[in-house]
């Protein structure tokens, strides 16, 4: 084959891979919906296709389709697959096991809530507005609002189910990352008397910090409808308020920043520690 033809075919392959990249995300969402990682863990760390189908209540007619889904999930590194022989028929079958990625879908620090929130239809469909949003002079309305006729914050303020979904997503991400923050960067909390977690939700970060540093007096600032559902805990004080209006004084301010592409993307999150003198509380 001529080099020019080979290059064209490779370019087309790259084009198709980018075109259908969303299949990876939807396959992962399906794995969460079908509780596949939980099934594998339930069976001691490895499970056959039949065991996965049974626990996920997939009818026999759809098992070949489930097999193709598992092929995608193994190709993308969500699960491992290894051939084994059954004891009765000596026929080869695939045995699926967890990978470091799918281990994040099980256990007390699992990332299922943040993945579920990130892959909900209202968020994914918002990206359909990216081209049109880029043509607008102003950053507002954001893509989410263009697609859904309201902002994510308006939605969580009026819809209890969406509010719970968002808060659970933030909690799962926070609980996971705070172990690393406390263990790797805990020295920043040494000598600090008080801290306020701005937009801290239900206080997952504050609880992790107080547990590691009991001397700290921790407070959480968030909107009224968020604080209303916060757990009762004597170790963390909850304050209803708007961080854009005022931030109560403290020795340190802890701020979880959600980086945005056109106002709303849950995918990229980072933690930033800001000392109070650097942030105006007016």
Notes on the protein architecture:
By secondary structure, the chain is α/β, with parallel strands linked by helices. The chain has two domains: 103 residues, Arc Repressor Mutant, subunit A, CATH 1.10.10.10; 167 residues, Vaccinia Virus protein VP39 (Rossmann fold), CATH 3.40.50.150. It is built from 13 helices and eight strands. It has a five-stranded mixed beta sheet. It is globular and about 70 Å long. The N and C termini lie far apart (69 Å).
Q: How would you sum up this structure in a few lines?
A:
With 282 residues, the chain is of the alpha/beta class. The protein has 13 helices and eight strands.
Topology, please?
Elements: H1 3-19, H2 22-33, H3 36-42, E1 46-48, H4 49-56, H5 63-75, E2 79-85, E3 92-98, H6 112-118, H7 121-124, H8 130-134, H9 143-148, H10 152-158, H11 160-185, E4 194-198, H12 204-212, E5 217-222, H13 224-227, E6 236-240, E7 252-258, E8 269-275
Parallel strand pairs: 4-5, 4-7, 5-6
Antiparallel strand pairs: 1-3, 2-3, 7-8
Helix pairs in contact: 6-11, 10-11, 11-12
């Amino acid at each position: 084959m001529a080099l020019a033809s080979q290059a064209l075919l490779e370019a087309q392959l790259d084009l198709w891979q980018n075109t259908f990249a969303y299949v990876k995300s939807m396959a992962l969402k399906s794995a969460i919906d079908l509780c596949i990682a939980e099934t594998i863990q339930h069976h001691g760390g490895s499970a056959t296709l039949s065991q996965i189908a049974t626990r996920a209540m997939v009818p026999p007619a759809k098992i070949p389709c489930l097999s193709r889904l598992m092929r995608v999930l193994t190709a993308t590194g969500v699960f491992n697959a290894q051939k084994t022989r059954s004891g009765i028929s000596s026929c080869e079958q695939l045995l699926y096991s967890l990978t470091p990625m799918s281990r994040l879908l099980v256990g007390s620090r699992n990332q299922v809530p943040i993945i579920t929130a990130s892959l909900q239809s209202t968020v994914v469909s918002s990206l359909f507005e990216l081209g049109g949003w880029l043509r607008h002079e102003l950053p507002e309305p954001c893509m989410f609002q263009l697609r859904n006729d309201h902002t994510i914050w308006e939605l969580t303020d009026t819809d209890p189910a969406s509010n719970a979904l968002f808060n659970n997503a933030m909690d799962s991400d926070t609980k996971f990352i705070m172990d690393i923050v406390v263990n790797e960067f805990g020295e920043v909390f040494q000598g600090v008397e008080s801290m306020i977690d701005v937009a801290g939700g239900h206080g997952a970060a504050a609880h992790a910090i107080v547990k590691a540093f009991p001397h700290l007096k921790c407070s959480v600032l968030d909107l009224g409808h968020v604080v209303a559902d916060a757990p009762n805990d004597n170790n963390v004080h909850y304050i209803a308020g708007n961080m854009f209006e005022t931030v109560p004084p403290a020795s340190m301010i802890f701020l979880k920043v959600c980086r945005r592409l056109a106002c709303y993307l849950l995918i990229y999150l980072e933690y930033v520690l800001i000392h109070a003198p650097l942030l105006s509380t007016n």
